[in-house]
Amino acid sequence: xTDPTARQDSAAADRETxxxxxxxxxxxxxxxVAELVREAAEYRDKLLRTLAEMENLRxxxxxxxxxxxxxxxxxxxxxxxxxxxxxxxxFDAMGPEVREHGDAKVKALVEGVELTERELLKVxxxxxxxxxxxxxxxxxxxxxxxxxxMENPDAPPGHVAQVIQAGYMLGDRVLRxxxxxxxxxxxxxxxxxxxxxxxxxx
Length: 202
Fold this sequence. Notes:
Strand content: 15-25%
Number of helices: 5
Order of helices and strands: HHHHHEEEEEE
Largest sheet: 3 strands, antiparallel
Number of strands: 6
Structural class: alpha+beta
């Protein structure tokens, strides 16, 4: 005959050796609906996270494609600017007298250069490249490159007094800064000293 006390000790030992996993399985078997609800919540959370990551990836890809379309031709556009600069130099070399008082052939040449320059700028603008000439504006190192300073009583210090070479933008980025001369600040007057005062009459 088996001792009842021995059976109780054996049952207690079995309960102590039961692992947490066994307990979880037992709980799931006890309430399968609760376990299914928990799993459904986990899968829903994973799905929402995946959808959010895919949306972020789509937006980032669209932004990168747009930037590639706009700024991908920056190197080519920068090379074309050399052609525009040479045309402007040729136009400036003719001078106003040649353009106004030259013969018909010279005027036709001038008009051809002007027309070609306008067409070139139009093509550049079509591809996002815009020319800017900041004469009279406040000097901005983000858009302008200072070549030298000069005095100009008609403009405040720190402003652009002369544009040496126009700048160009590609979208909202500087393709080439404008080369400018900046108005120099007026020299400060030396402080008056006691020796500078005229002697008083007695």
